[in-house]
Amino acid sequence: MRKFRWQLLIIVLTGLAVGLLLIFQQGANSPMLQSTPSPVTGGIYTEALVGNFMRLNPILDRYNQADKDVDRLLFSGLVKFDSSGMPQPDLAETWSYSADGTRFTFSLRANAYWHDGHPVTAQDVVYTMGLLREENELIPDDLRAFWSEIEVNALSDSLVEFALPEAFSPLLDYLSVPLLPSHLLGNLSLAELVDHPFNTAPIGTGPYKFSRFLVKDGTVSGVDLLPNEDYYLGRPYIDEVVFQYYPSMSQAWSAFQGGEVDGLAGITNDILPEVLAEPGLNLFSTREPRLSMVFLNLDNSAKKFLQDPEFRQALMVSINRQAILDNVLFGQGILANGPILPGSWAYYPEQGSFSYDPDAAAQKLAALGITRGETGTLVTSEGVEVRLVLLTPDDELHTRTAEYIKQGWESVGVAVDVLALPYSDVVARLSAHDYDAALIEIDLSGTPDPDPYPFWAQSQAKDGQNYSQWNNRSASEYLEQARVSSDYSLRTKLYRNFQILFHEQLPSLPLYYPVYNYAVRNTILDVSIGQIYGPSDRLNNINTWFVLAGNIPEGE
């Protein structure tokens, strides 16, 4: 349990995210509403999804975002999270924990029902969590190991207990997993569920229930959902939600322009100018739960200068990060100052920031006795050439970013060799600590609880994800205390101290957070998107959305 936290976090960015942090924009020709209309029941909302249907089962949708988006409306977990990452009641109405933090007890809502009318019970929780212990390629090894250490007991039909081997406050992250109905699936194993008919006729607990598939040319082209009349938070206003599948973002955008869909998620850079110019839509943007950074190997005996925080700060301020955002991300991105996502309850905005300042970098290096040699390259006082090999995944985004980093470091005299490798090779080199510096992206999706322990704690330096091998006792103590305390006030203070120390020590160099854009036709009201911890979070409050009354045909 001590090692597990952010499963499959280091990824290759496969497409450019676009947008600005928490910006709401109206299309140029959008009508300005003089007052906020009252919600009305009725209408249809249709959204384009880039991808294809595989199965509607929240335990099996980990690697298919299109399925996850639909499942978000069909299923619910014990808890959910607000935009700051604080846990909120979902199927569990209340919960408590033991003084030592090793037992959590959840009380289920009395008015929570499956779409077939059967009440939600503690047995549903026991069954669902049991599936996560099974060996299956769709369940990450670390996640299976995590659940294998936890006992899940039904104390009654409405009470369920989780017994942990040690205190672990981020447990609630793992309890947002949507539940499956044990009364329908019985004791089916995960392997038996993979191709089970349930996946094409799902029964959930969410605000919408499955109606039918839309089929075109013998292929599933969409999913039709109807409101859950007995939803425990109240019946949704919109009478029908339709998801339409498209093979590409450009085709989804054409469908939007043609009036076939009302919403478009994950808008990419190539169509952003057209989106901004399109009349009659609202554009919502927020930061993605991803962090681009440069890991530094602080335990490289051949590059001892990396062990000095002043040297690392010089590397940081010699990178023109804004130029990366402007020229690689086309002006779309958010500069990062530390390892915790902005908007999180744990984020400390006063930790400080980093500005591009090559002159300050040169002064820091000179103060360390690092001067330019005859070739113009920096040399330490011991006569060691300051040369770094910068590893990067070999995709266009990362290689272009790496060139800007190389340019900045070389401008202050650091010799740089960029080594572009397949993603798997970069990860292997990181795990083996066989690198100087590595450009990588950390995916924090699905982890509203910040818990940076796995990447920065001393105990994780040898076999864990502390790839920088940062050996700081104070930082580790802050992180260790924070992950075992259920007192959010105390945890906030501990993470504040950690972020201040991280900013001073800079074991690795934070670059930017990509952002996520979502367009919705302006006839769909009460749409709001705060900080997200996964793309599906854009749909968190869809039960309160409604269609502008004038756009609901008579009789609906």
Write up this protein.
This protein is of the alpha+beta class. The chain has 3 domains: 16-75 and 206-288 and 515-556, Periplasmic binding protein-like II (D-Maltodextrin-Binding Protein, domain 2), CATH 3.40.190.10; 76-203, Dipeptide-binding Protein, domain 1, CATH 3.90.76; 290-513, Dipeptide-binding Protein, Domain 3 (Dipeptide-binding Protein, domain 3, Roll), CATH 3.10.105.10. Helix content is 24%, strand content 22%. The protein contains 15 helices and 25 strands. The protein has helices spanning 65-74, 122-131, 141-148, 182-185, 190-193, 249-257, 272-277, 309-317, 321-327, 358-367, 396-411, 423-431, 453-456, 473-484, 488-505; strands spanning 10-11, 24-26, 44-50, 79-81, 87-89, 92-97, 103-108, 151-154, 159-163, 208-216, 219-227, 240-246, 263-265, 281-287, 290-296, 334-335, 371-372, 378-379, 387-393, 415-421, 437-443, 508-513, 515-521, 524-525, 546-547. The strands form 6 sheets. The protein has an 8-stranded mixed sheet with strand order 2-14-23-13-3-12-11-10, with helices on both faces. A hairpin with a 2-residue loop joins strand 10 (208-216) and strand 11. The longest helix has 18 residues, at 488-505.
